[in-house]
Structures are given as structure tokens and as C-alpha cells.
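U., I forgot to send this yesterday:
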Amino acid sequence: MPGFRLLVVGLLLAIVFNLGTALFHLSSERGADDAEKSRKLLRALTWRIALSISLFLLILFAWTQGWIQPHRVGG
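Result:
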């Protein structure tokens, strides 16, 4: 199911992007006031959490529908 894999990879990339955005807003000191930086940081982290939860629910849904199957690692 290549469409599902692309969706999972896309969500993972969006999560990493939002985490990087949050890191940028946390570490940047370019002229913006603290309230504005905090608002942008909070928005980026909120998106990351929402994307992580949606990815988890998507994987759980795919497992219940039989689209993916768990397997043993190394055995």
C-alpha cells in the first residue's frame, strides 16, 4: 500500500519540520518580543503534538483494518 506509506512518511516529515520550527523560535533572538516568540513556539509545538497524535491514530486504524501487520524483530 504505497499511498499509506507516503502518508506516514509525510506526517513524519511534518512532525520533524514543526519540531525544527519550534527549535528555531526557541533559539532565535532577532528583534521579536518575547510574547511573539512564545506564541510562535507554542503554535509549532501544538502542531507537532497534533500531528503525532494523528499519526498514532492513523497507524492504529490501519492495524485494526488489516492494512498493516505487526511482526517480530530479529526473530
